[in-house]
Design goal:
Strand content: 15-25%
Helix content: 25-40%
Number of strands: 12
Structural class: alpha+beta
Largest sheet: 5 strands, antiparallel
Mean pLDDT: 93
Order of helices and strands: EHEHEEEHHHHHEEHEEEEEHHH
Low-confidence stretches: none
Radius of gyration: 18 Å
Number of helices: 11
Length: 255
């Protein structure tokens, strides 16, 4: 990736104006994934001066700025433990010091552990100018939202939660990840299929209507999702992993 120029934005208005001017102007975030791309960029836009690097308690929810690093997310006592643990499993500490939460979420990466675990919670995304949508809505929406992601709102709960990442080595991308939360209702999420994480709607409907057979719930989850091949593994293996870990997750949160 090559960039013609670099700008440290002094306001969200300035950054947004540049983004709208050309699809070749990009928000840099942590820069780790842009770096790996082949597309040339006219202007890289840095948001580091805009105060988006804070994690704050907002009474009903925890607000995470888009420029918060994954390392800060994993260390914050304000963030639910299962989210901290899922973040801690990503690559190494040096990587997490640079990668931002906003970049990870906005990019809709199929291998994202953060999206998988966040989808299992009530999470809203705040975009400039003046848009708030749920993470589920954003993930399902084709393409990317027309705005700048500024904050992630993680609503507070006391639910039981489980996260599992399956990988070949500690520094590999996941070949599957699973998150399950049980509160008033169940939420079941499977990611790295290698497609972006998704809620298992049929499985959740069965469970939330009183279904108790966790093996059946896992089968419903696998039946409704698409699984694909990658360099790391085949779709059939991913399906078998999903069957196993969705069932185990449901057993764990239901104890």
């Amino acid at each position: 990736m090559k960039a013609k120029s670099f700008l440290r934005a002094s306001s969200l208005e300035e950054a947004y104006k540049l983004v709208k001017e050309s699809p070749r102007n990009k928000i840099v975030a942590g820069g780790l994934w842009l770096k790996k791309g082949n597309a040339d960029v006219d202007t890289l836009i840095d948001l580091s001066l805009l105060g988006l690097d804070k994690i704050e308690d907002k009474k009903d929810y925890v607000e995470v700025g888009a420029m918060v690093s994954q390392r800060e997310l994993e260390k914050s006592p304000l963030v639910p433990e299962v989210i901290r643990e899922a973040t801690k499993s990503i690559m190494g500490p040096a990587f997490r010091e640079i990668a931002t939460v906003g970049g990870s979420v906005y990019g809709k990466y199929g291998f994202s552990d953060i999206i998988t675990v966040l989808l299992a919670h009530h999470v809203e995304l705040v975009f400039y100018p003046e848009a708030v949508i749920t993470l589920d809505e954003y993930v399902k929406k084709p393409g990317f939202y027309d705005g700048i992601l500024t904050n992630i709102r993680i609503f507070k709960d006391k639910n039981k939660a489980y996260f599992k990442k399956v990988e070949i080595t500690a520094l590999d991308y996941p070949i599957l990840n699973v998150a399950v939360v049980k509160g008033k209702e169940y939420k079941v999420v499977v990611g790295s299929r290698p497609l972006v994480a998704a809620l298992c709607e049929n499985s959740m409907k069965y469970l939330n209507e009183g279904g108790k057979d966790f093996a059946k719930a896992a089968e419903l989850a696998v039946e409704e999702l698409k699984f694909g091949d990658s360099i790391a593994t085949k779709s059939a293996y991913r399906k078998q992993l999903a069957l196993t870990y969705v069932r185990r997750a449901l057993e764990e949160v239901s104890k």
